[in-house]
């Protein structure tokens, strides 16, 4: 799409800025819609905001898969999930009143974390399994879709009829309606849809630029996807999470990250469907499993942190945030050396 390295880098940079700008606006609109629709921050973050902030990942990953770049596609989406979890650690550092996982405690987020671990294990099983495919699709791809839909049912049930309740403390921040933006509900939905379209298109442009950068510089698709495009396409999650925290919408911030990572499993499934060379799981390098395993490790660590609910840690951040940041740093070193 872009004729030279220079235009590819420029397109990559512009698309990144567009994604960040649209993402900051999305958090404000999403918080308002969560209140006006009655869904609440948790469910809106899971069912709607997560899907929208995943659009750059979806567009970028599917573009790479259809172009027969399996490592670029999988490293992008897998690396994005690890980056999203790091963003929660960054958000915990920015929220100074208490440990973020303590303040935003909910049974819904616990269920989401458990669901994410289950979903992350499925593509890893596909990678480790014998090369089997039906009509060019691995049998585990429809299983991922079914598990995601059933998981959403469990999350919805957990939210509407919880059997576990977090202990309320002075640091706990409940989901409360906030101040509305100008305009009515219809205007808010139109704004939300427009911003969603912008982020999706920017994600596609971003990956096209990344392909040129990878080809012209000689850097591996694994390194480009797992580091550069993963961080760029995940920037809406970072921006919306930080914006939500500044609005004191803590539940929205946490549920958006978990919901986005769960939705990204559908992105992996779509990559397998769109990949023209058969099952995508069997055409990727083994290093791709690193991001999946790291994401499972980080999610499990975060789950322990949410159950433990430490009020304050060293530097007023939870132990789980410090561990997640450390694990991600080690993973970056491993991928960089391997790539």
From TrEMBL:
<feature type="transmembrane region" description="Helical">
    <location>
        <begin position="107"/>
        <end position="128"/>
    </location>
</feature>
<feature type="transmembrane region" description="Helical">
    <location>
        <begin position="72"/>
        <end position="95"/>
    </location>
</feature>
<feature type="transmembrane region" description="Helical">
    <location>
        <begin position="39"/>
        <end position="60"/>
    </location>
</feature>
<feature type="transmembrane region" description="Helical">
    <location>
        <begin position="227"/>
        <end position="245"/>
    </location>
</feature>
<feature type="transmembrane region" description="Helical">
    <location>
        <begin position="289"/>
        <end position="307"/>
    </location>
</feature>
<feature type="domain" description="Sodium/calcium exchanger membrane region">
    <location>
        <begin position="8"/>
        <end position="126"/>
    </location>
</feature>
<keyword id="KW-0472">Membrane</keyword>
<dbReference type="GO" id="GO:0008273">
    <property type="term" value="F:calcium, potassium:sodium antiporter activity"/>
</dbReference>
<feature type="transmembrane region" description="Helical">
    <location>
        <begin position="319"/>
        <end position="338"/>
    </location>
</feature>
<keyword id="KW-1133">Transmembrane helix</keyword>
<protein>
    <submittedName>
        <fullName>Sodium/calcium exchanger membrane region</fullName>
    </submittedName>
</protein>
<dbReference type="GO" id="GO:0005262">
    <property type="term" value="F:calcium channel activity"/>
</dbReference>
<dbReference type="GO" id="GO:0006874">
    <property type="term" value="P:intracellular calcium ion homeostasis"/>
</dbReference>
<feature type="transmembrane region" description="Helical">
    <location>
        <begin position="6"/>
        <end position="27"/>
    </location>
</feature>
<feature type="transmembrane region" description="Helical">
    <location>
        <begin position="186"/>
        <end position="207"/>
    </location>
</feature>
<keyword id="KW-0812">Transmembrane</keyword>
<dbReference type="Pfam" id="PF01699">
    <property type="entry name" value="Na_Ca_ex"/>
</dbReference>
<dbReference type="GO" id="GO:0005886">
    <property type="term" value="C:plasma membrane"/>
</dbReference>
<dbReference type="InterPro" id="IPR044880">
    <property type="entry name" value="NCX_ion-bd_dom_sf"/>
</dbReference>
<dbReference type="InterPro" id="IPR004481">
    <property type="entry name" value="K/Na/Ca-exchanger"/>
</dbReference>
<feature type="transmembrane region" description="Helical">
    <location>
        <begin position="252"/>
        <end position="269"/>
    </location>
</feature>
<feature type="domain" description="Sodium/calcium exchanger membrane region">
    <location>
        <begin position="188"/>
        <end position="336"/>
    </location>
</feature>
<feature type="transmembrane region" description="Helical">
    <location>
        <begin position="134"/>
        <end position="155"/>
    </location>
</feature>
<dbReference type="InterPro" id="IPR004837">
    <property type="entry name" value="NaCa_Exmemb"/>
</dbReference>
